[in-house]
Amino acid sequence: MTREKKTIIITGASSGLGAALAAKYSQKGHRLFLLARSKERLDAVAKICIANGAEAYVLSVDVTNSAEMEKQLNEIAYQYGIDIVIACAGVSAGTLDGPETASQVRKIFATNVNGVINTVLPVIPHMIERRSGNVVIVSSMAGFLGLSSAPSYSASKGAVRLLSEALRGYLRVWGIYVTTVIPGYVKTPMTSVNSFPMPFMTTAEEAAEKIVNAVEKNKDVVAFPFGMQFCIKLLTMLPSFIFTWINSKLPGKPAFEKDNNL
Q1: Any keyword Oxidoreductase (predicted)?
Q2: Which residues lie closer than 8 Å to 176 by C-beta, 6 or more apart?
């Protein structure tokens, strides 16, 4: 029996979780469009995907560029249709080197919030027309709490978590499923700069497998690992003065100037 070839768009596909998702989907022989800023790194990921039996196309584009994103996504939709879109591109930075600067906060929101908007919204009309599709938005456990170690990162991930939740209810009538991905620490270049303990860390490959399985089952939410999810849940139940005290003791994440992987 021949498997259906799906057209899948993945942003942030040049490294980390995005690259792991590309590799995982490539094993199923799908048609992949890999988006990120670094063409060199995208080419390396595409080479792996093609070797696994998939079609893989590289698009060097910045997700913060709304006009270019809309142009590229429309062209893909008109030519192939879009079955799955995964908004995975993201950046992270924090307060290790002092208060967050305005430029750092704007950069985080531009990528983590506007980047998701620029990835998802152009695709939705095409999926509505076809009355099918899967939208996948990568949030974070940090999106449940305003963490002192990474204020704007937490806020940005909370924003896209709520956006994902809202879109899920709105789009279901058209047969479109929205999956919110809520990972804890995943071993990627984004977390490699952290000098503090990161409990319950999973590999990018393990995370990608969980996400792919959840999307195949049209799950609303996939959150992992359970240990981190349990800890976050406990923190949200604490009285505010206790959480504030704990929050004031958290070690900061490096600022962008200290992080060459972003």
Answers
A1: yes
A2: 124, 127, 128, 131, 132, 133, 134, 135
DSSP for residue 186: E
DSSP assignment letter at 254? P
Mean pLDDT within 12-23: 95
Instruction: Flag whether the pTM goes above 0.70.
Output: yes
Active site residue 153: yes
Concatenate the DSSP letters of all residues of 7-57 into one string: EEEEESTTSHHHHHHHHHHHTTT-EEEEEES-HHHHHHHHHHHHHTT-EEE
Structure tokens at 103: 């430029």
- Angle subtended by helix axes 16-26 and 204-216, to nearest 10: 60
Residue 215 has which token pair? Answer: 């999307």
Which ranges in the chain belong to alpha helices (H)? 16-26, 39-51, 66-80, 102-109, 115-120, 124-130, 151-171, 189-192, 204-216, 226-237, 240-247
Q: Which of 25, 78, 80, 153 is catalytic?
A: 153
What is the identity of the amino acid at 241? F
Q: How many CB atoms lie within 10 A of CB 99?
A: 11
Strands 55-60 vs 7-11: parallel, antiparallel or unpaired: unpaired
Residue 34 near residue 27 (C-beta atoms within 8 A): no
Q: Which tokens hold the place of 203?
A: 């590999």
* Average pLDDT value for residue range 4-21: 95
State the DSSP H helix or E strand holding residue 84, giving kind and residue range, or none if neither: strand 84-87
**What's the rounded Cα separation, in Å, for the pair 167 and 177?**
9
Domains belonging to the chain, first-starting first, are 7-258 (3.40.50.720)
pLDDT tens per residue across span 29-69: 999 999 999 999 999 999 999 999 999 999 999 999 999 99
Hey, what amino acid is at 23? A
